[in-house]
Amino acid sequence: MESNQMKSIIEGLLFASGDEGLEAKQIAEALDVERSEVVKHLRELQQTYMVEQRGMQIVEWAGSFQMTTIPEHVSYFQKLAISPTRASLSQAALETLSIVAYRQPVTRADIEEIRGVNVDRAVHTLVAKGLIQDIGRADLIGRPILYGTTKQFLDYFGLGSIRELPDSSDWEDVVKLEQETKLLFERLDNRQLTIDDVNEK
Question: 66 in the Ramachandran plot: left (φ > 0), alpha (ψ -120 to 50) or beta?
């Protein structure tokens, strides 16, 4: 496999891994090459991103490599997160949010197992809107991020605490997600509040 193709695959793997990142060993196993070769390409990619002043960077944290945005652009991401589009939560985001609310702390893998689909975009949206947050790391291989709800989540749904969520313990697992999502919709009382509404309080 040629160098440029390998770098392209590494970029794709890092992007797909999201905020959990990947160890060089994991990438090497996926590519069926030596770890040292992967590290070499990762270092070259880091240098390329820096020299070309890309909007992304590859960072190493706790033994894992992650693709992230650069700190210099944080003000633009903040503007995007609170932009006055007044868009309500999508069904996918609300389903993901209900899983986090009722089962927290949960990892992204836990959420995907329940929903049966990739949840990268939904998780990113909810984090950007301040409804869920990183609350620690699971004691599992790779130390995946654990997600939980925020104070803004409570404000958004008019809750005094997470204990005020309607009880779902009597439902069967097969219908629990559907019912929990329905409860969050009902909790909004047809107001369809947006993040702008919360910020204006």
Answer: beta
Q: Which pLDDT tens digit goes with each residue over 175-197?
A: 456 666 676 666 655 444 444 44
Q: Are 101 and 162 in contact (CB under 8 A)?
A: yes
* Residue whose token pair is 């107001």: 191
The values of phi and psi at residue 58, to 5°, are: -110, 120
Hey, is 55 helix, strand or coil?
coil
Provide CB contacts within 8 A for 18, sequence distance 6+.
108, 120, 123, 124
CA distance linking residue 143 with residue 53, whole number of Å:
30
3-class secondary structure, 101: helix
Domains and CATH numbers, the chain: 3-72 (1.10.10.10), 82-200 (1.10.10.10)
The model carries a pTM of 0.49
User: Which residue type is seen at 81?
Assistant: A
Distance (Å, whole) CA 160 – CA 153:
10
Cα gap 65→68, rounded to integer Å: 10
**Strand pairing report for 64-69 and 106-107:** unpaired
If we measure between CA atoms, which residue out of 133, 125, 129, 126 comes closest to residue 150? 133
